[in-house]
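Worked example 2:
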Amino acid sequence: MKKILCVIFAAAVTLSGWAHVKPGVEVLRDGGFKELKGKRVGLITNPTGVDNTLKSTIDILHEADGVELKALFSPEHGVRGDVHAGDTVSTYVDPATGVTVYSVYGKTKKPTAEMLKDIDVLVYDIQDNGCRSFTFISTMGLAMEACAENGKEFMVLDRPNPVGGNKVEGNLTEDDCISFVSQFKIPYLYGLTPGELATLLNEEGMLKDGKKVKLSVVPMDGYSRNMTFADTKMPWVSPSPHIPNPDAALYYPVSGILGELYYMSIGVGYPLPFKLFAADWIDAQKLSQRLNALELPGLKFRPIYIKPFYSVGKDKHLQGVEVYITDKDDAPLSLTQFYVMQELADMYPDKAVFKEGNADPKRFSMFDKVSGSKKIRELFSRNHKVADIADYWNKDAEAFKTKSAKYHLYKK
């Protein structure tokens, strides 16, 4: 038994030693949890909330001397990752700690006064993917609002932005598209860590009624904003079933908006989620040639032939293109899917995505919400040309970069 424990301990030390960056939870622990001493604590987390030895933040706080973990709050997928995408979460007791778990995904997306009554501070520790439509930052913002309304403190244990801290793309969310997939008026790719974003939401009056919460951020140690997730050497834990690795997080904005239409496969249901575009009516060679001829910066395309295991195109022989990001800083990540739609509309006019009878009109509302504006679909559907939306899509990016820079916690 001692030999086994020694092996496990050595493996943990080795795993931790690989990392170049300490997440906020490790910095908090290294400081003796002084920020939480004597406080009743609530925790919003999921399986991504781990230290560099893969120990859960739930267990770290539960075992910490002087810290009373009173409640857990479950976002999409559950605190232990045992809830499938889109499924609602019910209130239950976490078997490992005996702590009550409250759902903040489903009918109740914002912690209620009753849920918060026995805590002093609500802690947030989730690895995000850097994209506005990923629901965890909506959970964070709504929880901040709840804490502001109920006189509770809010703390963010910071983590990297896997798309990078300098990548900003997309228009700000407009009033008629505010939703859980675009909860705040920020760009599609916002170029901030969770802690930086929380500070911006708080200081810029972006929470409900402009209220501010008593906010603290425990920053990472060793992180710089030009790092890729791979540069951090931190272990990646999937935040969602279709983001199995950091590459999937980087490719998510490449195809995720189009994916809302179920018009073609984007690799979900195949081992390359968000990294491809395929259908049974596409000529892979021709599409690849056309996209490469555009000479889009930081991008390359190759023909691909697939048979998805589930989701769009299940059990069908599809062909299309696999996307390769050669320079993420130069690549127009979120516009890539619109270039694909443009070329396909020119190659196959009868298959143009917004031509009647192709994409399901019932999905247009979700497409608009994820885009953050109805104008993107309205402008693009006229001619299926990227030139018709590019200026609108990019119109807010530079101003947001300037505004958000004052909240940067990390240097380039």
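The longest helix spans residues 2-18. The two ends are 47 Å apart (CA to CA).
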